[in-house]
Amino acid sequence: MHTILIVDDDHAVGEVLSRYLQKEGFTPILAYDGEEALKAVNQFHPHLVLLDLMLPKKDGWTVCREIRRISTVPIIMLTARGEEFDRVLGLELGADDYIAKPFSPREVVARVKAVLRRVNMQEESFKKSLRFEFLSIDYEARIANVKERELNLTPKEFDLLWFLAKNPSRAYAREQLLELIWGYDFAGDTRTVDTHIKRLREKLEGAGAPSLIKTVWGYGYKFEVPS
Fold first, then answer.
1. In a 10 Å sphere around its CB, with 0-12 CB exposed, 13-18 middle and 19+ buried, how is residue 61 labelled?
2. How far apart are CA 145 and CA 133, in angstroms?
3. Of 21, 24, 77, 180, which has the fewest beta carbons less than 10 angstroms from its beta carbon?
4. Three-class SS state of 227
5. Residue 117 predicted with pLDDT over 90
6. Mind listing the domains of the chain with CATH numbers?
7. Could you tell me the CA-to-CA distances from 182 to 51, 176, 187, 193 in Å, in that order?
8. 180 in Cβ contact with 121 (< 8 Å)
9. CB 163, CB 139: distance < 8 Å
10. pLDDT tens across 30-75, in order?
């Protein structure tokens, strides 16, 4: 069960987010100022921090900076200030996402899930490489070989191949792949997925691999090793 630290000096906002997160199976912890937030990070080691910028004692930027000195925990910033400078500064300090108030609690929960999925994918990616009869993939080196021949893949083509190959025989909807590979806020549509799959297939099969990425008609795609 994931623990989510909610840091907001508005008690009503904290309570609402806490209830919505609990309904989704998360364990929320509340902090109402910057100093309390840092103590909670050290005490509870949360899986993700929802961090308001305008806080008493220590503001959100300071808290984010101090968290990053000791932890890589994902941080989503919450603020009523929507200026581009604030967003860029938060991301440069190490925030993983940014939501401007007013927001829907459901949107916050969706962002929490999306960030945790991406973090989990990254953590798993560094644990191993993948090897099949015709194909080998090394995530750390970001190299994919077909019969010892290196494929010239774009970053997203590589991410897409790695994700599908890491979950063989499991079908993913186009919308899922768009969110997981391109990110929650990507301003694109499912044709982006189709285009990348088409190019990826051409490169795999052009190098001599069998048909590894199958279309699940009316739904999406899956990676399948020939029997």
1. buried
2. 11
3. 24
4. coil
5. no
6. 3-124 (3.40.50.2300), 128-223 (1.10.10.10)
7. 23, 10, 9, 9
8. yes
9. no
10. 999 999 999 999 899 999 999 998 899 998 889 998 988 888 888 9
